[in-house]
Input
Amino acid sequence: MADYVDTQADIAAIDETAAAFARKITKLEELIEGKRTALNQTRARDIDRAGLVETRADGTKVIDKDRRKSELDFIERGIVQELNEFRRTLAESSGQEREAMLRKLHERGQRLGQLAETFPNATSWLARAGLGSTERANLQATLAGAGKAELLSMAQQAQISGNRILAAAAVTANERLTRRDRPFVSIEYASRLVGDEHGQWLEAIAGARDKLNRVRDLDNLFTKGGESPTTKIERGLAKRKAA
Output
């Protein structure tokens, strides 16, 4: 059905764009790490030239640990400042491309959200079958004047034959009756026919929208200069080892 097909197209596009966005951020972060490595190497040479590391005649090195730690702290602050500036430069230069990707993701996510709100349960999911078609219009007109027994019979026939358009017409006719006069419970009937399919559809939409949230988090992390807990631990261990 049209909305189902469109949903699959949006979900596939979100998968593709989210993956491309992640690759973009990875490349930018690699540039930043390369910059960090170059700065660390430069600062290490500066320390040696400053005389904090003295090489003895036998080739061993003596390090003034207090001065070394103080200098390393100073150097780390300088590196952080330079990296922050470098990150801001990369964020600005990649801003238009990232914003275009985020905008595309947001638009598709909005469409998925609207569809999820339009078809929140199995009844609404089934009721859309054949909408706008001549077959649905004719069946709807026929069932409009059907009695309870005839309506129940048509609903059972639709379930046995797998005729979703007939089932949708039966559910719509059933819902137009007062609750007391309905020959069957629409949500239970629809759930038997399309419950699993509808549930999988909602799960797919939820998964796609979760990807949107992760992409937004990834972008915020990049622009603000955040890093994962693992990276923080590794960097902290490296700093203590150097000191």
Summary: The mean pLDDT is 85. DSSP finds nine helices and two strands in the chain.
